[in-house]
């Protein structure tokens, strides 16, 4: 076997096989001047995600040459204090020069979210920056709303009234939560739609920016073995798992309004599921991809109460339980863990359970997709493991396929082995962008394929709303009480039985990944 190419240049040259997005439209703002406005610039999301992502693009030279980043929020601070905030989650020791240059394009304006006067001040400031540019430069603007949902509508309207560029293109990026159920989502969408057209709106679900999720299209449709086998004839069940090893840690009051299903399942995991299960799109163009995602989601009926397992963590080993947080009501039944089974009623997937599991305060932090294939015909084999295709989304991207192989030696004995593609070993000098870097880059280029369309949100809520109303006590019958599980456990004690109910077979208990070579039976 030849050694893998370690050289990113060679990999890059080979990449031509997918038509690049630039070829599909000239919506890109990359080669013109651009003003990026971050609304909510003093908040957590901005300092943890938005500014580091903007910096990542800046140091890779992926922002337009003439770019200004303007922060806007209520907090009164001078530029120096603002720079500190913006750089708080950027490795300035690793990039001393670049981060210094980055601060030169940053400025800040403070003002209220619900009054025109603040946005007028912002407009005057943007104008001043744009007036220094050549006269014929278009005045393109990208607005990033890093604000809580309660001010979405005010901010979107205030920006439209006061800061909308008449001499260039405008785009607005917003992020979840998009409502709490179908009705509130529709209200929110229609209030934003009054101001911003669908074409101008980029709705982030950051899972769509994750490298492994973006890879699903290529993996599925670029490999005939997977293309041919990912269907109800060959697949027993699919699991999409999200585990976090920490609890709500002081943010319990905020979390309690949403719960794990709204926080993770209805958006991130469902988006992942739709890319994993959709039919082959006509092309890689954004609307072709999003059409297929909507189609597959429309085949999923609302989740039933009996296909659901809820959990809530309690104190263990000195770690506080969910309800020990003073901001969480004592009688809260908000799930911090959920196991859900979804079914897709189309010819490809009918009858295959898609098991979603998401939980906080579990034994590890991991997000993965696990496709478990059906048993092979018995006869020559008695007890042989199932094939599995596992794609780990985080941490550290890995794809592995569990196969059976003969144990080397005189005996004919099968053992499970894995074909293993670990990104950091295989793609040694490829710098994988973070999800937010990838998405902001797409928004600048005008590529909407990895953003959530309005009709997608609508179908996504239809699948989850009856279940959520039941949990919230708005459905028929009493509200369910989640099963308690200790902080740091694998989940509620019924979680293994829940997967088994939908056909998932655990590998033999004595089977562990052979870390070194398997001892041959000579
Ligand atoms: C797997 O799916 C293909 C259709 O894509 C089908 O022809 C084949 O029989 C299936 N395999 C099994 C074991 O059912
Ligand atoms: C895959 O290979 C990497 C090393 O390249 C190793 O660290 C990892 O444990 C392997 N994973 C599996 C599931 O075999
Ligand atoms: C956590 O539990 C899972 C089973 O749900 C197990 O496979 C995994 O090895 C455990 N992780 C750690 C770090 O113990």
From TrEMBL:
Residues 37-215 form the Glucose-6-phosphate dehydrogenase NAD-binding domain. Keywords: Carbohydrate metabolism, Glucose metabolism, NADP, Oxidoreductase. It catalyses: D-glucose 6-phosphate + NADP(+) = 6-phospho-D-glucono-1,5-lactone + NADPH + H(+). Residues 1-24 are annotated as: Disordered. Gene3D superfamilies: Dihydrodipicolinate Reductase, domain 2 (3.30.360.10), NAD(P)-binding Rossmann-like Domain (3.40.50.720). GO terms for biological process: glucose metabolic process; pentose-phosphate shunt, oxidative branch. GO terms for molecular function: glucose-6-phosphate dehydrogenase activity; NADP binding. Residues 217-504 form the Glucose-6-phosphate dehydrogenase C-terminal domain. Residues 1-10 have a biased composition (Basic and acidic residues). It is an enzyme of class 1 (oxidoreductase). InterPro entries: G6P_DH (IPR001282), G6P_DH_AS (IPR019796), G6P_DH_C (IPR022675), G6P_DH_NAD-bd (IPR022674), NAD(P)-bd_dom_sf (IPR036291). The keyword NADP applies. This is Glucose-6-phosphate 1-dehydrogenase. It comes from Trichosporon asahii var. asahii (strain CBS 8904) (Yeast). The lineage of its organism: Eukaryota, Fungi, Dikarya, Basidiomycota, Agaricomycotina.
